[in-house]
Automatic annotation (TrEMBL):
Presence of the UniProt keyword Hydrolase in the record: yes
Gene3D superfamilies the record matches: Metal-dependent hydrolases, Urease, subunit C, domain 1
Keywords, ordered alphabetically: Hydrolase
Name of the featured protein: Amidohydrolase family protein
Origin: domain of life: Bacteria
Domain Amidohydrolase-related: 75-404
KW Isomerase (keyword) present: no
Pfam families to which the protein is assigned, alphabetical: Amidohydro_1
Taxonomic source organism: Marilutibacter spongiae
GO molecular function: hydrolase activity, acting on carbon-nitrogen (but not peptide) bonds
Length: 411
């Protein structure tokens, strides 16, 4: 709390440009995708004040005195939400595999380097149309909290961030074998828990450090957290009103332990079984598939998850450097994968906006264009219901009523 007060007292240039209280902005467009009701509204005007959507109008009528942004022949959508990012984390294939990169990142990057890398990625994500992200660890020690607060304070541009601080994990984090002298490095990136009491302590520490979510690596290699440890984590987090994201891969045991403990989302779940999906459906646990554009072999589970009625919230899990592409451009390329896996374009749009919005912010709506929701909007020139690739070329971005990108109209 003390830190938040300090931030508020410092200069925050972004705030000065916010929509003034009460001033009306109207965004007009030829089409709007109403993801909640699975329909398209034509010739539409979104009325915005104080960073929030006040109403959706059709036809010619316009409120008196409003600033009108007429985007013309485009489709408006809610701002994209990426629920699995690592903005303060970047690997380079030139350095080798995950393991080699993991060591280099810790020994060569200062906390300030990580934060500045995060600032670049945050700006790139926002400019690509992502107005909200959930950032799940690999940020050093609490550097994600600093980036979130810097964005909230208007110091740097970026999406609204929900952050986890360091991921909780079995001994060794996600490192492979490390010699004894190198093992203290693990704590730079992970909080290793041994036993339910340590698990509780780790959750309390994360929340004290500023975590909005708890990220748990349920399994890494052959090591796996126990049911007792997972139950302690979920119990402690939920008591504080904080949700839990569980990384679970390699078979079914880790995912089953996590869903039985009552986590809120399963990350990856590449080999998830119908048995686990049935528990997830019953407990309304989201699946965050994080499929890369080349993840052919995991495709079938998307179809099974849809059939089981699972809430799918799409996350990019992007963290490798890609020549010629920003982090945001990499993240925006994930959607065709889900159409190829059998989801309808409308379902993919919902899994990129509404469903992640419900997962992250059930009380103050995001990921939907409707009265009372945050004014997070994007516009694309193509028709995303015909070609989901339209999301790769976002021409207009508004976050909380403030225009961030406008490649469509002259000022
Ligand atoms: Zn990840």
């Amino acid at each position: 709390m003390a830190f938040a007060c300090v931030l508020a007292a410092l200069p925050s240039p972004g705030r000065a440009q916010d929509t003034a209280d009460g001033a009306l902005t109207v965004v007009r467009a030829a089409h709007l995708v109403d993801v909640r009701h699975r329909r398209v509204i034509d010739d539409v005007a979104v009325v915005i004040a104080g960073g929030e959507i006040r109403s959706i109008e059709t036809g010619a009528g316009m409120p008196m005195g409003a600033e009108v942004i007429d985007l013309g022949e485009v489709t408006l959508l809610p701002g994209l939400i990426d629920v699995h990012t690592h903005l303060l984390h970047e690997y380079d294939r030139e350095h080798g595999d995950d393991d080699a990169n993991r060591i280099l990142e810790i020994v060569e990057m200062r906390a300030a380097d990580r934060a500045l890398l995060g600032a670049r990625n945050a700006r790139d994500m926002l400019e690509a149309g992502f107005t909200t992200v959930r950032d799940l660890g690999n940020s050093g020690i609490n550097n994600d909290v600093a980036l979130r607060d810097a964005i909230d304070g208007g110091w740097v541009p970026g999406p609204r961030m929900f952050v986890s601080t360091r991921a909780l994990s079995p001994v060794g984090g996600q490192f492979q074998e490390l010699v004894e002298a190198a093992q203290p490095l693990v704590a730079r990136e992970y909080v290793q828990v041994d036993g339910p009491e340590q698990a509780r302590r780790a959750v309390r520490q994360a929340i004290h450090d500023g975590a909005d979510w708890i990220k748990v690596i349920v399994n890494s290699d052959s090591l796996m957290l126990s049911p007792g440890e997972m139950e302690a984590i979920v119990d402690e987090a939920h008591r504080a009103g904080v949700q839990v994201a569980a990384h679970a891969t390699h078979g079914d045991a880790a995912a089953m332990i996590a869903v039985q403990a009552g986590v809120d989302s399963i990350e990856h779940g590449y080999t998830i079984s119908d048995d686990v999906l049935a528990v997830m459906a019953r407990k309304h646990i989201a699946l965050v598939p994080t499929d890369s554009p080349t993840a052919e072999h995991h495709r079938a589970r998307i179809r099974r998850a849809v059939a089981a009625g699972i809430r799918i919230a799409i996350g990019s899990d992007a963290y490798y450097r890609a020549d010629g592409l920003t982090r945001g451009q990499v993240a925006a390329r994930i959607y065709p994968r889900y159409v190829a896996a059998g989801m309808s374009n409308m379902d993919v749009l919902r899994s990129a906006t509404l469903l992640p919005g419900e997962l992250l912010a059930p009380r103050h709506p995001i990921g939907t264009i409707e009265a009372g929701a945050r004014a997070d909007l994007i516009a694309v020139r193509g028709d995303p219901l015909e070609d989901i690739g339209a999301l790769e070329d976002v021409a207009f971005v508004m976050k909380e009523g403030r225009t961030v990108v406008n490649r469509l109209t002259r000022p």
